């Protein structure tokens, strides 16, 4: 019996999404003049939207390992189905929206997207542990 690869494809896409907010940071760095001798020291010079993009980028590094663990849990336990695929796929636009709302400085919607992302992760883990589904 073969297991659906959709969650693994979502895992690869989520890894790529980590760097999407950094595109905004890179653009802002070019606008203010990139200092290659001290690239991290430039943070205070960045406009507020780019600082928030940096934080969104950093938060993606915090969220991704949990999603990766959840996907690997369902994959290794051979759990599959519509709910698994839906949760894995839903995580992607949720994280995209999270970054958008973070950069746009809309904290309530950002927090809602963070919570939805955690629901996706928790749901996948619960399915893997046979608590639901």
Automatic annotation (TrEMBL):
The keyword DNA repair does not apply. Keywords: Membrane, Transmembrane, Transmembrane helix. Gene3D superfamilies: Membrane associated eicosanoid/glutathione metabolism-like domain (1.20.120.550). The chain crosses the membrane at residues 6-30, 60-77, 83-104, 111-132. It comes from the Bacteria. Pfam families: MAPEG (PF01124). One of its GO terms (cellular component) is membrane. InterPro entries: MAPEG-like_dom_sf (IPR023352), Membr-assoc_MAPEG (IPR001129). The keyword Cell membrane does not apply. It is found in: Membrane. This is MAPEG family protein. The lineage of its organism: Bacteria, Bacillati, Cyanobacteriota, Cyanophyceae, Gloeobacterales.
């Amino acid at each position: 019996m073969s297991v659906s690869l959709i969650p693994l494809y979502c895992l690869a896409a989520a890894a790529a999404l980590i760097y999407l907010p950094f595109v905004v940071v890179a653009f802002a760095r070019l606008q203010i003049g990139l200092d290659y001798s001290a690239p991290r020291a430039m943070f205070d010079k960045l406009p507020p939207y780019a600082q928030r993009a940096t934080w969104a980028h950093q938060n993606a590094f915090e969220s991704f390992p949990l999603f990766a663990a959840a996907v690997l849990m369902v994959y290794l336990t051979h759990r599959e189905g519509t709910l698994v695929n839906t949760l894995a796929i839903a995580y992607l636009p949720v994280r995209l929206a999270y970054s958008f709302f973070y950069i746009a400085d809309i904290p309530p919607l950002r927090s809602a997207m963070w919570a939805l992302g955690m629901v996706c992760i928790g749901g996948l883990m619960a399915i893997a542990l046979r608590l639901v589904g």
